[in-house]
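Hello forum,

I keep getting stuck at the same step: I have a sequence, I want structure tokens, and every attempt I make locally crashes halfway through. Rather than fight my setup again tonight, could one of you with a working pipeline run this one for me? It's a single chain of 252 residues.
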Amino acid sequence: MKHMTRTIFLITMTLLATASMAQADDEPRQSLTSQGSQIERGRVGDDNTSYDEFEALKIEGTRSVKSARSVPQEEGAAVTQAANPNFWFYDADIQLFSDLDNDGYYFGIDLWFDADTSYSVAEVYAVLYLSYEYGPWNEYAETEDFTLYGTASSDDYVVETELISGYPTGNYDILIELFDAYDGTYLASFGPEDTSELSLLPLEDSTRDTPTGSQTQVVVNSGGGGATGLLFLLGLLAVRMTLRPQAARLSK
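Reply #2:
Ran it on my machine without issues. Output:
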């Protein structure tokens, strides 16, 4: 039932995103993200799901490999922070899911990573970025605070994201940055230059993931019956959507 509720919510947000795309020059980036530690992959609780909205995707310009979130200084400039040698990433893994039109591009990202520290205990959080066709880094999710226990393998973290709008079809890279939960200090990063798992991921948002022959024409008018029409459309889309297609493991 929880998964069905999340599916209906995703459908609703997709419809709203599609409507906003028709009225705006810059397509906003919208997504749903669930997260947690010490959980089985693919079973992140729906109670932890958040809706996120960001500015339009930046696709031109260079990208910084380290510390994509630069720190503003008092004089207004921004500097790139150096990594802390007491923190590092042991490994990361990606599974993609939800490709309804079977074109090889997915709108679901299941990201697992394991960060370590030389300290016995450390409170941290992570910020996740996507880069479209080797363009600039764009933040797409931020984790809650979580605890690292030295080099233990039991403190791994899973972030599942469903892209709703604002992500054109193409290949994306992912960058993970780790920050101190106390003062926001940048600690470490892990990206496509550290592992091929985070590179060349075939993605698109759910508004672009339409099975051939299943396009739904949305007619907007100012008359009555709008709520009934929306409910009917939700019903049609609910039939098309599955609870969650089996995750696809990319072979590198």
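The radius of gyration is 19 Å. If your local run keeps crashing, start a new thread with the error log.
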